């Protein structure tokens, strides 16, 4: 019998963008959307031969509203693909909904370890990082600089807890000791009492995680409290996309991240030029993660000739791919998380200047992922 050729789907692919448009992470959501759309525009508005159409929901970085919000995209709008989001608590609800509905999900920021750990799935991918990755790299970097004691400070929710855990794992493995773990609820920014505790603990260095508007205020308050004599480290979110607002208070802050200023590669230079031309502002790590989420969607759709129902072929293509990112080339682990270099960066002027590679081709341990 002659095999019957299967008809390829035509028409537009509906991409549901669930990102924060309001609140402390609003600028992060904008950068992700800009980056994603930049890649689609560069591809002539099509991925895998099909035109892309967008539907948007503002998730407000509110985990309590996350299930309702993602269901608007899945049930009301019947999207083909989910892209989101920034906040780990909201992204975990998206991963749960993706698991239950079978929709493709690409996470363009949220680091929640569980997404490529116990919640991993054949239709769930991440273009960004697991919280463990930059946390672990910071622990290695701080120990390598010779610091023996540290205080940690973060928002108390999945991303902060996990970055601190990754940091602690590497710092203690290399002989460091955490003398105090401080935290406050997300998205609070009343840092004063905690900064008094930092001063009293007299650590050799401090490790922190905050992002967006919260990171701006933390770095400024740290300097105003007279703490700059204690070296401040963090995952790169502490100073990425925030330097204009942080000004001189951020100078000297050391962070680890999968992106940096001054990489000076042809790919990054071209990306930066195109981004500035399109949006009249500088890109940051969030823009890169959005751009790469679109690149990953493009790889999957090219392999399935635009058919989102072919989940196994989509996943196989991504697992075999090397993504040519502005951050540098990366591959995708079996648990669907980037395997990537973690840069050590130091704030100099208005830049997160690359100082070196803190952890080469760092792969998340994907604890609890069974696929
Ligand atoms: C998170 O919630 O996973 C997150 C938010 C902002 C920056 C980095 C991570």
How would you describe this protein?
By secondary structure, this protein is α/β, with parallel strands linked by helices. The chain folds into two domains: 190 residues, 3-Layer(aba) Sandwich (Rossmann fold); 145 residues, Rossmann fold (3-Layer(aba) Sandwich), CATH 3.40.50. Helix content is 38%, strand content 24%. The chain has eleven helices and 15 strands. Strands 7, 8, 9, 10, 11, 12, 13, 14 and 15 form a nine-stranded mixed β-sheet that branches. β2 and β3 form a beta hairpin. It binds benzoic acid.
What CATH calls the topology of the largest domain is Rossmann fold
Share in β-strands: 15-25%
Largest sheet: 9 strands, mixed
Unreliable spans: none
State the secondary-structure class: alpha/beta
CATH architecture of the largest domain: 3-Layer(aba) Sandwich
Question: Which homologous superfamily in CATH is the superfamily of the largest domain?
Answer: Response regulator
Measured as a percent range, the helix fraction is 25-40%
* Number of strand segments: 15
Q: Ends: how far apart?
A: 35 Å
Distinct bound molecules: benzoic acid
Number of domains: 2
- How is the quaternary structure best described? single chain
Order of helices and strands: EHEEHEHEEHEHEHEHEHEHHHEEEE
């Amino acid at each position: 019998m002659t095999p019957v050729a299967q008809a390829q789907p035509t028409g537009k692919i509906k991409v549901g963008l669930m990102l924060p448009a309001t609140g402390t992470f609003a600028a992060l959501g904008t950068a992700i959307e800009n980056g994603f759309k930049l890649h689609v525009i560069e591809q002539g508005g099509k991925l895998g031969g099909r035109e892309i159409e967008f539907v948007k929901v503002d998730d407000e970085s509110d985990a309590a509203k996350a299930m309702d919000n993602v269901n608007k995209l899945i049930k009301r709008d019947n999207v083909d693909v989910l892209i989101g989001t920034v906040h780990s608590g909201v992204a975990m609800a998206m991963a749960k909904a993706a698991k239950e509905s079978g929709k493709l999900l690409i996470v363009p920021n949220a680091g929640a370890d569980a997404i490529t750990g116990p919640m991993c799935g054949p239709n769930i991918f991440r273009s960004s990082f697991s919280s463990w990755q930059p946390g672990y790299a910071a622990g290695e970097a701080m120990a390598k600089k010779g610091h023996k004691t540290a205080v940690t400070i973060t928002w108390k929710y999945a991303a902060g807890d996990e970055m601190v855990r990754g940091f602690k794992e590497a710092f203690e493995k290399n002989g460091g000791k955490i003398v105090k773990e401080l935290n406050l609820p997300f998205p609070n920014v009343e840092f004063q009492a905690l900064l008094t505790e930092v001063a009293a603990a007299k650590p050799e260095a401090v490790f922190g995680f905050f992002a967006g508007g919260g990171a701006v205020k933390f770095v400024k308050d740290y300097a105003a409290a007279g703490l700059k004599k204690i070296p401040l480290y963090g995952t790169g979110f502490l100073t990425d996309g925030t330097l204009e607002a942080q000004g001189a208070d951020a100078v000297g802050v050391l962070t680890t991240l999968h992106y940096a200023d001054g990489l000076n590669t042809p790919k990054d230079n071209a990306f930066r030029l195109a981004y500035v031309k399109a949006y009249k502002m500088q890109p940051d790590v969030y823009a890169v993660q959005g751009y790469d989420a679109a690149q990953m969607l493009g790889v999957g759709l090219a392999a399935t000739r635009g058919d989102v129902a072919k989940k196994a072929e989509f996943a196989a293509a991504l697992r075999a791919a090397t993504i040519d990112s502005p951050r540098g080339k990366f591959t995708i682990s079996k648990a669907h998380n980037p395997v990537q270099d973690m840069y050590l960066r130091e704030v100099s002027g208005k830049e997160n200047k690359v100082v070196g590679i803190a952890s080469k081709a760092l792969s998340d341990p994907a604890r609890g992922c069974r696929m």
